[in-house]
Design goal:
280 residues; alpha/beta; five-stranded mixed β-sheet; elongated
């Protein structure tokens, strides 16, 4: 009868008996899975279903002092139906034309964003945020290319030049006006960054400007990627006022810099990794 049933199921007799002998092992593994998935779910839902296996692994190691293989985490997420919410690419991006007096700068980075020195490569860009039933605000940021730390940010209800001036002012305060001797500020060719007045302000800080090639988002990919993750993880659309929006953004930036463990930073937070590089 065993031979007949194995033939019917398309399995070998030896395979069937091996499966029987492994019953206790399977039960033990399932019990362990039930215990592990509790910890994974705690992090997964706390981060609003917007973290993957690698990020969960880093949270487990840093916050719970527990080492778990990322392949196991992926297996458990699939087994228990935990699917990370990911953003959909936006194929549309407004391109703002500058006046004739505006001047672009050469691309000095050539996508070499991480040069292993904190403060040497500074990436900047502006993105829009819709909140309170369709009101629009704008977020300007400066990101360290080596540590991925957000060094300065500013939320404005207007796209006037003041948004980048205030971002520069915050950047200066953030680094205590002690810029890297070879600091480069890299951006796209938006009219804010090609503005003569803005370029003068950057030059006075002792910073060299660099710009992406026209229409090439990959030349400032880390900044684009950060904005994408930000929009995935922050419920900014639920804010009822500009003040609320600023509070939400400030909280996220603080959490990102000090508590966001990143695989590419040796599983450290941006602030921890900056200290690591400086100590090295």
């Amino acid at each position: 009868m065993v031979t007949y049933l194995c033939s019917l199921a398309g399995v070998s007799r030896s395979g069937y008996y091996e499966w029987l002998r492994a019953t206790n092992t399977r039960q033990s593994r399932h019990k362990q899975d039930e215990e592990d998935i509790v910890l994974i779910k705690e992090i997964f839902y706390k981060k609003k279903e917007k973290v993957g296996a690698l990020q969960i692994k880093m949270f487990l190691e840093n916050d719970k002092n527990l080492v778990m293989n990322h392949k196991k985490i992926r297996r458990l997420m699939k087994k228990y139906g935990l699917f990370t919410k990911i953003r959909k690419p936006n194929p549309y991006k407004k391109m703002m034309k500058a006046t004739q007096e505006h001047r672009s700068c050469p691309n000095l980075l050539d996508r070499e964003f991480n040069q292993g020195e904190p403060g040497k490569v500074l990436l900047t860009d502006i993105t829009y945020l819709y909140y309170a039933n369709g009101q629009r605000a704008y977020l300007s940021c400066v990101k360290d290319g080596s540590t991925k730390e957000i060094l300065a940010h500013y939320v404005s209800s207007s796209l006037e030049m003041d948004i980048v001036y205030k971002t520069l002012k915050k950047l200066k305060k953030s680094v205590s006006n002690q810029f890297h001797q070879e600091a480069i500020l890299h951006s796209d060719q938006g009219y804010h960054y090609t503005s003569p007045k803005f370029q003068k302000k950057v030059k006075r800080l002792g910073i060299t400007q660099s710009m992406s090639r026209k229409g090439n988002c990959w030349d400032n990919a880390p900044m684009e990627s950060f904005f994408g993750h930000f929009k995935d993880e922050v419920n900014y659309r639920e804010c009822n006022s500009l003040g609320d929006l600023r509070s939400v953004v400030n909280a996220y930036m603080k959490d990102y810099n000090h508590k966001r463990y990143q695989w590419g930073l040796k599983k450290m937070t941006p602030v921890q990794y900056r200290s690591h590089l400086l100590a090295a």
